[in-house]
């Protein structure tokens, strides 16, 4: 039986002289509580799963350069600066095509800023992208003809891209509108990274599947957003289409294998497949 979140966090609050600023709560991979540290809004976070703990090591490694600053840390526990700004990238994306494009640009710039950090030994426990894509490869073997062969084609593109990366950086791994937040005068900063490294373009593909089905699957949105990503990042549009298909296949495979809803990622994957197969 899982222990009470309050009891799990009490020793850490005492250690760092944190003041509660809300109730403690549990997620599938961590226990959190809004707190203040010397008057600064923060979250106390205790990882309860290996993947979450590895993501915490990445946050510490970035040291506030493009990501939420870690104010204190020990083992699987950390105190993370809390976003207090009132701007939302999801709301901006939902405001119309111009706002959606601006949200895409902000996400691209946030990811690029993180990717530029490489001035010290990398954090322990990073997965390479080949390992990250393992479930797509398994799912494609089991479902080669599902969704007009999307999984099979996603596997083909993923293997080709992984065999010829355009670079190797520490990736965020889950760039989307809910993981880049408004930190007021500190700007837009990332939270909740995964623990993965590889081709920089991987980090931009998830933007195409977010922030929700209404935006992601709106007519013309996929093509427009691919163009914005290419403009902001320098990634060739066709290469971005290939990463979009690979990522959508992986995300849909995760969802289908866990009983989740893969509708949005399948829709994005099929759009990527159609664009790749269109006559030049």
TrEMBL record:
Keywords from the UniProt entry: Kinase, Transferase
Residues spanning the membrane: none
UniProt cross-references to Gene3D superfamilies, sorted A to Z: 3.90.1200.10
Pfam family, one: APH_6_hur
InterPro entries: Kinase-like_dom_sf, NH2Glyco/OHUrea_AB-resist_kin
UniProt keyword Transferase present: yes
Keyword Lipoprotein annotated: no
EC number: 2.7.1.72
GO molecular function, one term: aminoglycoside 6-kinase activity
GO biological process entries: secondary metabolic process
SUPFAM superfamilies xref list: Protein kinase-like (PK-like)
EC top class, as a word: transferase
Record protein name field: Streptomycin 6-kinase
């Amino acid at each position: 039986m899982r222990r009470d979140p309050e009891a799990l966090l009490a020793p850490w609050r005492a250690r760092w002289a944190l003041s509660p600023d809300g109730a403690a709560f549990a997620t599938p991979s961590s226990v959190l509580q809004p707190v203040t540290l010397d008057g600064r809004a923060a979250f106390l976070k205790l990882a309860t799963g290996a993947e979450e703990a590895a993501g915490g090591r990445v946050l510490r490694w970035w040291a506030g350069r493009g990501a939420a600053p870690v104010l204190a840390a020990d083992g699987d526990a950390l105190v993370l600066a809390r976003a207090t700004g009132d701007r939302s990238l999801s709301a901006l994306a939902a405001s119309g095509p111009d706002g959606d494009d601006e949200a895409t640009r902000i996400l691209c710039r946030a990811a690029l800023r993180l990717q530029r950090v490489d001035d010290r030994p990398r954090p322990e426990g990073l997965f390479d992208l080949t390992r990250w894509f393992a479930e797509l490869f398994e799912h494609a073997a089991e479902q080669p003809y599902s969704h007009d062969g999307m999984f099979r084609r996603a596997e083909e593109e993923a293997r080709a891209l992984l065999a010829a990366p355009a670079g190797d950086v520490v990736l965020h791994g889950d760039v989307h509108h809910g993981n880049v937040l408004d930190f007021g005068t500190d700007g837009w900063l990332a939270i909740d990274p995964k623990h993965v490294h590889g081709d920089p373009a991987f980090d931009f593909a998830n933007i195409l599947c977010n922030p929700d089905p209404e935006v992601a699957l709106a007519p013309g949105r996929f093509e427009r957003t691919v163009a914005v990503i290419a403009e902001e990042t320098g990634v060739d549009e066709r290469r971005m289409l290939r990463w979009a298909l690979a990522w959508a296949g992986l995300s849909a495979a995760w969802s289908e294998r866990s009983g989740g809803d893969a509708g949005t990622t399948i829709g994005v994957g099929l759009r990527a497949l159609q664009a790749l197969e269109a006559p030049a």
